[in-house]
Design a protein that fits this description.
Length: 1710
Amino acid sequence: MKKKGKKGLAVAMTLAVTMTSVPTVFATDEESQLMTLPERPNEEKAKETVWKYEKLDQAPMKESVKASSENTPEQYNEGPARLAFDGSNTTAWHTAYGTHQGPYTIEWGLGDTYNVGKIDYTRKADGANGTWKNIKVEAKKADETWVEVCTKELQETAMGATTEITFEPVEATALRVTVTDSYNKEANNKYASAGEINVYKATKDVTLVDPIKILPEEGKSTTMKEGETQTMRYELTEEAQEAGGTVKWRVQEGSVLNVDENGVVTAVGEGKANVSADYRLGNTSYNAYVEITVEKIEADCVINLNGTQYTANSLEEAVKQSGQTELTSVKFESGVIRKEDFDYLKKVKRIQYTLKEFSIGDEVVLRGLDGNAIPLKAFYASYPGYSLEKVYLGKNVKGLKMNAFGMCTDISSFEAPGLEWMDGSALDRVNGLTEFSLPSLKVVESPLFGTMSNRKSNTVKLPAVTEFANDAFSELTKLTTLELGATPPTVQISGRDLEFASGVVDNLKLVIPEGALDAYKASPGYNEENNTWYGIKLSEPQEEVAVNVTVNDKAVEGASLEKAVAASGVAVDEVTSLVINSGKVTQDDLAYLKTIPEIETFEMNVGENLQLIGKNGQPTTVLSEATAVLEFAGKPSGHSRATITTITLGGITEVEYGGLKGYASAETISMPNVITVGERAFCLGEWLETLDLSSAVTIGSNAFNGCTNLENLTMNAVETLGEGSFKYTDELDNLTLPATIKTIDDIRFGICKNGNKSGAKIKILATTPPTVDRGAFDGVSSITHPATVTVPSGALAAYVAQVNPNADVTKVLKRSDTNWNHLYLREEGSSLIEYKAKCGTWADQYAYVTTGETIPAEKMAALHKDDEKNLKENEEFKGWNTKKNGDGDMITSETVVSKDMIIYPVIGEKAEEINITATVNGGEAIGAESLAKVIEKAGVDSVDVETLTVDSGTVTPEDLTTLSSLKYLTELDLNLDEDLKMVDAEGNPTTVLPSGQFKGSALEKVSLNGFTEIGASAFARSNDLETVVMSNVVTIGGSAFEETSVEVVTLPESIKSIGKNAFVGKRNGKREMHITIEATTPPTIDGSFAKHADADVTVPDGCLGNYISIDLGKPFKDSGDTKWGGLRVIDNAQKLITYHGVNSWDVMYAYVVDNTAITEGRFPTTFENGDKILSGWNTEKDGTGTSADANTVVTEDMTLYAQWSDPAVDLDVTVSYSNVNEAGEVTWTNQDVTVTLTANEPVQSIEGWTLDETQTVLTKAHDKNGTYHVTVRSADGQEKEVEYTVSGIDKKAPNIKIGGTGNGENYREIKSIAIHDPEGISYLMINETKTEINDKYKYFTDIKALGVVEGTNTAVVVDNAGNETKITFGYDKTAPTFKWIVDNNTQAQSKEVRLETSEEIQLPDEGWSLKGEENGVFVYVKTFYANWKDKNFTVTDLAGNVSEPQFVEVKRIDNSRPTVVELTQDITDWTNKDVTVTIKTSTDCVAPEGWKQVNKRTFTKVFNANGEYSVTLTSVTGLTGDAHLFSITNIDKEAPVIDYAAIESANGYRKEIPVNEGEEYTEEKLVEMFTKPEWVKDNSGTAAFKVDKWGLEHGLDGYQPFTSKTPGEYKVRFYAYDAAGNSSSFDVYVKVLEPEVEERTTTVSYTVFIDGRVRTGQWTHTGTETGEFRFDLSMVKNLPASYELEEGEEGYRMLQYGDMTSVTFYLTIK
């Protein structure tokens, strides 16, 4: 018997749970190898041990390595020991070149304790020296002792080759190799080197079978309820215990189960999931698992939708209860919330745009949600995202998954008191929160709110956070306050400060609990020198804050403006931007303001948060000399203007002259709240371009006088403009005055210093014109560039009335009418048409036309009268044209006006007079003086005219004569309308067609619309005339259409009279006539239709009574009563019924309105038939047709026959049933039961019953048992109540229920089969086995006796009524088998797994699908997008049988977008060398273009210049990350720039110094004496002069050494070195002076006799010099031939130059 295995928590117990463990074997490759140790002699070969090797990470080795010798600095890619662990054999460890004797040691740590058994030594790729030959390997144990593990002699290999060094595995924390001998190029050079060193841990390669299994907690099963917990157990086999190894529970947080490291399982939500444990032996891992089923606990939830509470099991149910179609607010107030609720929420119509608020209450429990977290993309949508504004997540919500609220940019309130973790993208772009507080959050893994700049959030409170990424706050550009807990959090990238947006950290306030400051100072992030914690300044409490300001974009506070500026660290003469945010601005602050010399922009918004304290000590909003004066510094010396350019003063309500000073240089001033602008308030603001006075009501006199550059002025409320206020505003050509404007004084708008404002554009929004001084706009218009004023739509008349009260804007205006105060009027929504006159501009005419509409006739100008006078005899005015030469578009009253227009008169020759236009034989329309001329122009003889359309003009009697003459005219359109008129002989308009006009014509078709009268015989004997149209005719004369072929004609509503014989006769005799008269009142007639064989007249619906005189509600006898004028009258709203009695002559009639019932009153009652009774009416004489009564609805003319019956007898009815036999027994049936009622005489039909041909039998089918009542009526009206009872109907199929374990269709165990039917069961048949029942209920447990077999079964149960229930079910006791197929050798973004099963199974989980059946196996597939494994994966067939578990996994999936996780430079100080940048990536990547790969996650690139750079990563799976931006700023390859001009200007190239009697000058002293710092500049900003030894050696000639102790001249070279090591130089010629001697004065007196005149003078020289000196005497005239110079105190000599204008004397001083 086997020993009990090692137990996880308790003793082993046996459960019916299927588990399998499968080993995971590491692949054999260069990093993981199997090796068999060699046999040892003299030892018994008990068991061969096979070792498996796995390469360890080099990183800890590289960090810890040290060697007894290494060549530093690095040369030829070799030297430091760390190069042996950098992943490349092109770099190498090499001992010092100057050392030639070993032994040498190299030692490195492993980063942890490992069982190591192999070292790979790789010779360097280039070079012959130092290759290992004899070595000793030692291992450092956990107790810090070193043990020798092997000594070896290695064979010499090729460059770059690798040698394996194996040894008995040993537990070690570090290794040391001593190289006692090596292979070298020269025998006397003994070195040691290594291109690469790799270490491998060793594990025994043992294969175990099912070494571990998992059991539930004692007393519990694998079925759990939501919220339940239990502690699972594991058990190891004896072999596993002997082999050793470790067991770890697989920790998981899922939607079904949570499992912790101790195997404690918590049921989260409904479903099935596996609990797994890993047993690891060496490099082999075995997995076991057990499937847990979690059952759902139904719970009522209180859900608030749009403000109303609903109680439901789910959100979907609550929404259905509410009937809501759009959700604006969803609040889970109590109960549970599940993943299905979030899934359903996404389906709600327009939820992305409508939902504003979402909350989960503190008492709500989360079910089926991984990690109690808001699920992936719960509220995520691409731009513009969800419209959520307010979110509350109760204390049970612990996490946020990826993009849970991504793109919810409108969220302004977010509370989550219990939130402990969140994915880095969970709140991506949630940038609308001013304050953000998460009191329970533990870790911030990436930038809050994502990588897009956040310009809203200024306060972040994270009191519980223990760790955050160094870039957690990098995108918060407005962050001012960061609140953290008492324990300082750690930063994920140690040694690096937190990253903040530009300028944030300088103003960031760190809020921590009282007493926590010491803890922060003691934490790793504290920098004592700078007193910062991860870059954030730590400070003690400050003095009371009086004002909060922003200086040069840096927010600071202070007790005064001066102190706030000082706190910013910005020197007062470097302040360029100042914003006063809040507090109190005192008079002292205003006094300090004007001392800031270089200020450019200033902003102060007085209001709730900021007070301006006036001179009286009280708050004020007025700027004046009496209250408060805001003054800026004047222009600096030598400058043309001050520095201030932009001033913003919110909250100031009044500004007076002197209240604002020093503003003249400002280009933009914004005072949006000013109401009163005093006189001269902004005068002489010569640089002012933009001025915002949005709220100003009053503008004082000369307010803007002299603002010559003012271009943009905003005044939205102004009422009064003061005198001279716009004088000298040269650039202000456009001005908008609001609807409030009332008074415009003489503002001098047109007065400029330079030029004028011709063409200025003024816009006034007031509908009532303001009062304007007559000089206000003088000088704004010129002839070529008139200035305009645009007024509101509809206000034009009021403005024109001010100019000319008699002018009418609805008509054409004169030019002078449009000149309003020197401004030419324009109207919003209207376009101006300018009608030019040939006689001069003064005569131009104007009209305002609504834009987009045509020009009204009254606004079409006539030719100016003076132009008309100038017309020649053969000229006439043709109209208006857009071009002066007439080549443009003609403008008419039909022209749509879209913009202002200038149009010109067109003058041309007079045209032919056109009186009539017609179309002949379908040709083009031709105009002429008469119709005869039209035919003539058409080139057609009158006999050839067949069709004619008279289009327009006037038809005269002459034209009618022409028409009569057209003998072969067949079609004529002569329609009178607005375009075509007709006149009589006197020229009077007429619409009467003369008598006999077309008598005997060949016309076939004629249209006479517009004619009111057709004269007598107008078309008589026009035998071919068939069609005539007369839509306006009133009178038709006698014989008008006699003997024509007109058979169908419509007479309009206007017809009043029809003459005798108007439509009578036809050439071949009588003709049909179908007349339609649209008149409701009949016209007068004169027997016109009496002679037609078949004629009728259709009158308007409902007008029958107007045309015939009978009572339409009763029957009538004579059919002639239905005629009018001999024609049968047709009223489509009335239908004619013809009644027949006994004989054919017994006939009567009645009219019935269409689609209404006949009613009793319209049936005849006078018919008789002996003693028979009139029993009804039928459409057939024998009664076989359709019966009719008073309720019969008539839709067409009908003929009805009277039906007669004998006198009545007593009515009797019997009842019979289709399921009752002759013996009276009821039989069960599943069909309807037919009830038959048999009467002794004909009866009337009953709704729902069928009446047979004899009219004595009624039948009806019933589908339900019950007692019924019906009333039977005989044909003669007798009634009888009949009661009857229907029974024996059973249409409900019997029930069959299978009791067992399965899914309802397939069972792995069947315990019972139960059948039931309340009316009785006949039999049960399963497969071929039939069991008689004859009972209402049966319960069977012997399923084999019933015929159940393993496989597919069919069961049929039949009740006594024949109802049948048939089910098919599976009985399967065999567990399925499966095969897991996936390619785990390649890396990809996703992988498809193929699952082959022996039979059809239940889908394992979401994402699986059945592909089909192939070669006897079922194939299922699923695409995985993340690595996954399950140590106890099982499949379940349809019957619920579970397969043996297997270890399965999907690995090497990577679909994360790569990012740069670390970027370093090899040189960070200033350098004149290239810089190598190294990046480390978050995942395996291909080398970016231009980068060198170190390994799959490390890349380098050399940069030779500063700049902004980016690198875009692509993972080996093909995913591309965002561009990572970085900059290089420390390369300086340019020499410092020496300002030689400044040196020259300062005479710096030549210097004199006295002989130095003390110590020789130092180099520093010489630099101080002969250079200035400002003479040199450099990119690095750190260049400075110094003198080196070589520079000191340079003398003036050759290499004479410089000395300050010996007089003479020297050349000294000064060098300027920058921080990068670049240098420039310049030479200074230094003269060391002789020692000083006593100063003396020499005077020479002279007398010169010239041209008879004596000239005398003196020359004096004072100094220490001796030698020859020169002095000059300039003469006006030529010198004489000779003269004398008297001797002075010293000797002299004289040189004479003859006829020169000067004499030079040379004197030697001894």
